[in-house]
Design goal:
The chain is built from nine helices and 19 strands. The protein has 340 residues and is an alpha/beta fold. A hairpin with a 4-residue loop joins strand 17 and strand 18. 37% of the residues are buried.
Length: 340
């Protein structure tokens, strides 16, 4: 199949950083295409309603494009998605959304990009490829029996769903603590199970931690440290005791009977396109190898942008607010390559 379009740069991922690079390329009149499997800001779109960023508006706004929040508080996911839509419209960015990149091949000095939509398969060609695929492509599963039962989920939809229901929340980071508190305030009876003996202060934002500790101390949320689910059935959840590293210990089991289970066990990055291209991935996080000055990987012409730079981050270093600096690095590198 012959390429239907040639361009200078192809960006895979229409999250905040992918769009920010699109704006920068457009301002420099450098031809580009942006592909997104779903809608722009896809990861943010599945946040629960009214969930706020921990970052302030000026830190997640694109340079020179203010994000105004009417109450001057931290922006919600919905407010940020509206901001992204405004950016796309303001700069007239053409997004190939709902077009999944399935394969990228390097042929001589060019990249051939294969995509798929509901209308069929397509091929494009570019001089450079920027992978802005994020770090939260899918849930990190426990791989236990019953994890896929209908009343078990890795995503919080709306706390209202758990009104007057027994809810088991599993996890010990920001999302688990925040969702436990929100669901309790929505009228749920909440138990929080965490595999470690305590929730570390570095794992949860101070204000959340203080709120959680108060509610637990008052007996309003049940906290079960050093436990982890090992089996879920339609009638019960089997919790195993854990060792100091958080792994199950044989013989130490408790049975609880929740109506619903919310597994806040983190998410993993999809590094498949990096692997296809031969990018070196390092450590358990499978973080791509790249030049800090240019964001170019060990494969010439392939760049990493945004949170994908950390792979599946164990210790979070790459956020929206820390990824703005990636954009000028990539832009400068692309401009220099075009001069040669």
């Amino acid at each position: 199949m012959n390429p239907i379009q040639n361009t200078q740069v192809i960006i895979v991922g229409a999250g905040p950083t992918g769009l920010e690079l699109g704006v920068a390329l457009k301002q420099k009149n450098i031809p580009f295409l942006i592909f997104e499997t779903g809608q722009i800001g896809h990861t943010i779109s599945w946040w629960p309603k009214d969930t706020r960023f921990f970052s302030t508006s000026e830190r997640i706004a694109m340079p020179g494009i203010p994000l105004h929040v009417f109450d001057q508080q931290h922006p919600t996911g919905d407010q940020y998605l509206a901001y992204l839509r405004e950016v796309v419209q303001q700069f007239d960015l053409k997004i190939n959304n709902f077009e999944k990149v399935t394969l990228i091949e390097k042929q001589n000095d060019l990249f051939v990009v294969h995509t798929e939509t509901r209308h069929g398969q397509f091929v494009y060609q570019a001089n450079q490829v920027v992978l802005a695929t994020g770090g939260m492509a899918k849930p990190c599963k426990l791989n236990i029996p019953g994890e896929d039962l209908p009343f078990v989920t890795h995503y919080l939809d709306d706390p209202h769903l758990y009104f007057q229901r027994e809810l088991l929340v599993v996890g010990g980071r920001n999302s688990a603590v925040e969702y436990a508190l929100r669901c309790w305030r929505a009228g749920a009876s909440v138990t929080l199970s965490y595999r470690k003996e305590s929730i570390g202060p570095k794992s949860v934002k101070p204000a959340l931690m203080q709120d959680f500790e108060t509610v637990v101390r008052e007996g309003k949320i049940r906290f079960m440290p050093s436990t982890i689910p090992v089996e879920i059935t339609p009638d019960q959840v089997v919790l195993s005791g854990t060792d100091t590293d958080g792994y199950p210990v044989k013989g130490k089991k408790q049975i609880i009977h929740p109506d619903a289970v919310l597994l806040c066990t983190g998410y993993v990055a999809d590094m498949s396109l990096f692997k296809q291209l031969g990018v070196t991935l390092t450590g358990k996080e499978q973080a791509p190898q790249f030049n800090e000055n240019t964001m170019e990987t060990n494969v010439p012409g392939v760049y990493v942008l945004g949170t994908a730079a950390g792979g599946t981050q164990k210790k979070f270093e790459h956020f929206i607010e820390t990824s703005h600096k990636h954009v000028p690095k990539i832009l400068n590198a692309i401009e220099k390559s075009m001069e040669n």
